Fold:
Amino acid sequence: MHRSRLSTFLIDTPAAEAARSAAFWSAALGVPASPVPDEPQFTSLPGVHPDLVFAVQGVDDAPRYHVDIETDDHNAETARLVALGAVEINRWLDCHTLRVPGGQLVCVIPVHSDPEVFDRLAHTWP
Structure:
């Protein structure tokens, strides 16, 4: 048995445009843009939603949006999503990147949120 939840909405932007993109989204959504310490590719947009992380991520790829699902068992959650039709396309540390039906990207990540938030919002899977 494991638990998971939708935790993060990421605006993937070519790295050279990340600062401009973060400034745009900060102004458009009326929230601050806060660089994430020790993770320079991320700029957080706190305050967009109380239970979800919103951020701009500088990438070496095309612009897109993707979501992260956090879980207390990333191997079990990845297997569950693959059984539903996703295809694993990459791994980096404990992050599994999947392409889901429809072509979108989903990353399966270890729990990053406050434990109370995870406990309150996570779904339990058999």
